[in-house]
Amino acid sequence: MGIEKSKGYRQVLKWLKSGKRKPFQFQSDAWQYYAEGYSGLINAPTGFGKTFSLFLAVVIEELNEQAENSIKLSTKKGLKKSVKSSKGLKLIWITPLRSLAKDLARAMREVCAELELDWQISVRNGDTTASEKLKQKKQMPEVLIITPESMHLLLAQKNSSSHFYSLRCIVADEWHELIGSKRGVMAELAISRIKGILKEKHPERLLRIWGISATIGNLEQAMEVLVPYSDLLKIIVKADVKKKILIKSILPDHIDMLPWAGHLGHKLAHKLLPIIHKSKTTLIFTNTRGQAELWYQNLLALDESLAGVLAIHHGSIDYELRNWIEDALHSGVLKAVISTSSLDLGVDFKPVDTVVQIGSPKGVARFLQRAGRSGHSPNETSKIYFLPTHALELVEAAAIKEAAKTQQIESREPVVMAFDTLIQYLVTLAVGDGFKEEEIYEEVKQTHAFQEILPSEWSWIMQFITTGGNSLTAYNEFKKVVKAEDGLWQVESRQIAMRHRLHIGTIVSDAMIKVKYLGGGYIGMVEESFLSKLKAGNSFTLAGRVLEFIMVKEMTALVRRSNAKKAISPSWMGGRISLTANLGSILRKKYNETLDKTHEDEELDIVFPLFERQAAVSHVPKSDEFLVELIHTKDGYHIFAYPFEGRMVHEALAALIAYRLSRHTPISFSIAMNDYGFELLSEHPIPMDEEEIRTLFSPAQLGEDIVSSINATEMAKRKFRDIACISGLVFQGFPGKYTANKHLQSSSALFFNVFTDYDPRNLLLRQAYEEAFYQQIEEPRLLAALQRIQQSTIILKRPESYTPLCFPIKVDSLRENMSTEELGQRIERMTVEADKKNKKNKA
Amino acid sequence: MQITCRGEILILSKERAIYWPAQEMLFISDLHIGKPAHFRKHGIQVPSTIGDQDLTRLKGLIEQYHPKKLLITGDLFHHQLNSDITVFSQWRATFPDLKFLLIKGNHDRLLIKDYKDLGIEVYEKELICCPFRFIHDRPIAEDEYYTISGHIHPGVTVYGKARQRLSLPCFYFGASYAILPAFSAFTGLSILKPQQGDRFYAITPGHIVEV
């Protein structure tokens, strides 16, 4: 059926024409496929109207239906008067970020107004007011723009299923952002439920599920994850358009201007100023919130004329403030905004013509995503500057440029078998309308995340939420999910239901406390642990302001403005991002080119003197070489190794090597790593030659050796922190809502130990280990790295002191321990050392 | 491990208890009986075996030292009556000759009658037993008595060469007061910062180590 002939299509085309626009090929393709009943995935660069490719498809369908109805109406005159169109939710639009929602709603409302379509478009997420939610409950809008978390909250309401009876389509926007996380699993589960509800009520209706994704390495799989259903037709619609991107590094005049290690990059700040002044509006991306705060202070100190036109935007800043900044970005009032990933995605700020990335973006996909924030219109060029924070990052800049040119973009691996998320989901359903076990089991089993769930695992989970654990003894007191008289599993306790609703979500952070002026007005939030270190009168920065801490009252930190010159920046805990395998391999290639001078990258010319220095004191590894440095300092005996595989792989690799080294003689190591290599530090010398290194890095018995390395427990314990929160064992505090009953306080580490000792077959415990193995340790990647090392020439050097390559690792503060010594023995030895030190100090 | 404090000999056990031979008294703190059941009641899955394990350990200590009195410096029970406490009550009955003394802690909220039924002598605030004062949380002001308290679940971090570190539960002995480790395994730690003249006895699975 040719959609072109339909009334709705012509209406939309006419409207586009009136604005001197015409649809891109991929857009009209998408409309056609949608009309034919397909589900699938849209892949297009930003700025080419991805939103319209799906939103208008649903609009066309609506317009066509209205037209049909009015024909029917005219033939059956006067029989039915108000067949205009059925009210109710037609389209659910899932977005990963709150800041996207407002913008989307604005664009959609414009379309509806101009097409004279009487549609309500609402936003629902953590920022939505209670009154708005109540309004939605009474009458659902036609289009709901929602986060995965809010979708689950919706399912946790009583009588929620009736909301979905007239639904036609679910769109997962920025699907590439969701797919690699447990939020993606949340979306998968919510979709499976809504599909199930609709199927039961209206089996004749077709629910279409579409995703929108930027380019990633595994688009095909991304679609399968979102639409795993065999009863749906599916297709990937790719836009045949290329976005022009200009990448430029901000270079130091001389390599000595840049430090060997560090993550701030203030030394080059003055070079950023001309770029800001030259551009209309600049977005400056940093990797952490703390870094953003520091850069804000720093830029203002350098150039006072920026006061008032420079803003800061990150997830810990109050909603109202963020809103104001986003509006100001739209209207072009601001000259520059410093931001973290909170402005990463799809928001279309027209005045932004320049983007700056401070420090390594760690991956090609993320970098290109950020670049796409500038020059948003189809034919404009995106301009991005890279500002290195330490010398070696210049090589990364060259590597990213190459990857962007050759389109070597990473895959995003979907999360599977996240039992914690499933537990949370089942309790969510039990808090809502309740669920039938067989029905939900079938639905869950259809999702990509749980297609391999075993009946035994399912029954363990059911036991876990109903009787409290896999144990023969019935715990009389345990009350969470109970079977009601109608056979539905439900949560009866209002207290448990309330607490559960407060904790829906899979993003786990430390307890956060809201920060408020004494005279009123919220500024944002900081971690409780940070606040606990402050005394009244201390100053800190938040949202770019210097604030004096007064006191904590009712779980809110009260502050006043401060004139202090020096203030501490809070550090928000956040996972450190690791270099991707993809970027790692290009990076190794760039090391070759620097020395051979077979390149056209200005970055590599600048970094050349540093490489000469490294070559003089040690060696610069080529891509077919593997460098190990042995250095003896007053700290102890260091082994530095450089696989260039990213922080996460190095963490596992370091533990593995430490384990293998200590297999024969008990020994303890302290371990540090960065994206380039890792360090093992011991107080005893470790004799080693090239052949021994090859054996140490052998892929043989990799699996068993990882299991034996103590680190697996430590890693699993860290993974368990999130798992305990998501599955409802531990409650994280909520800003302003910190009601956590003291008598229910506990920690994830405690639960980890308790389960290990008393319930070793706990599935959540197993999940922690599996997450550690596949996400953290990345066993397949580890194996590939070891195999590569086997093929390489091993270079062993014994430099006199720290080298340019090892220095950034050495100063890294995050350290791990690895030991095969018996605990008591270790403490005794450590104590003796401490004693000696004390005596020495006294003497 | 045997130590001397204000002239009295005290035996520190790695099972998180102290035995005072002169008074034939065993003292422990923060048993938190009923905590697992209390958590379960609120929909948090905690294995019940953990509570049993605590009582088994305590039984072992009683059989090892044969004390006349067992003193608990607070937080014997975590919250209100529940099935864990029923188990405790049966366990308690197997030691008819042992006197149970409890200094009330912030968690101890049972009725006077309930304590009586369980055969526990309750002290609202403190118990003076020269040269010691037993109390749940240590008072701010100092006097002639050496205070022994619990409440905070003390832990100590041991640092070693090559930037190694470990956190362990411990006994703390300061200039004017001491703090007992929490007896229950289902408790967290609050790490203390050493001051001049402090003694820390870290508890490892094998034995006790002065650090």
In words, what does this structure look like?
- The complex is a heterodimer of chains A (843) and B (211).
- Chain A has 843 residues and is α/β, with parallel strands linked by helices.
- Chain A is 43% helix and 16% strand.
- In chain A, the strands form five sheets. In chain A, strands 3-4-2-5-6-1-7 form a seven-stranded parallel sheet, sandwiched between helices.
- In chain A, strand 16 (512-517) and strand 17 (522-527) form a beta hairpin.
- The longest helix of chain A has 26 residues, at 50-75.
- Mean pLDDT of chain A is 84; it is low at 78-84 and 735-740.
- By secondary structure, chain B is of the alpha/beta class.
- Chain B has a single domain (2-210), classed as Purple Acid Phosphatase, chain A, domain 2, CATH 3.60.21.
- Chain B has helices spanning 35-41, 49-65, 83-93, 112-117; strands at residues 2-5, 8-13, 17-20, 25-28, 69-72, 99-103, 120-123, 126-129, 132-135, 146-149, 154-160, 164-173, 177-179, 190-191, 199-203, 208-210.
- In chain B, strands 8, 9, 10, 11, 12, 13, 14, 15 and 16 form a nine-stranded mixed sheet that branches.
- The mean pLDDT of chain B is 85.
- At the A-B interface, helix 18, strand 23, helix 26 and helix 30 of A face helix 1, helix 2, strand 11 and strand 12 of B.
Helical amount among residues of chain B, as a percent range?
10-25%
Give the overall shape of chain B, derived from the CA principal axes: globular
Category by helix and strand content of chain B: alpha/beta
As laid out across the biggest beta sheet of chain A, the strand order is: 3-4-2-5-6-1-7
Terminal Cα span of chain B: 13 Å
Number of domains of chain B: 1
The fraction of residues in strands of chain A falls at: 15-25%
Largest sheet: number of strands, sense, barrel closure of chain A: 7 strands, parallel
CATH class group of the largest domain in chain A: Alpha Beta
CATH architecture of chain B: 4-Layer Sandwich
Q: Which regions of chain A have little confidence, pLDDT < 50, spanning 5+ residues?
A: 78-84, 735-740
- What is the overall number of helices of chain A? 30
Radius of gyration of chain A: 29 Å
Assembly status: heterodimer
Percentage of residues in DSSP E strands of chain B: 25-35%
CATH topological fold name of chain B: Purple Acid Phosphatase, chain A, domain 2
How many discrete domains of chain A? 5
Largest interface: A-B, 52 and 42 residues
Helix amount of chain A, in percent?
40-55%
CATH top-level class of chain B: Alpha Beta
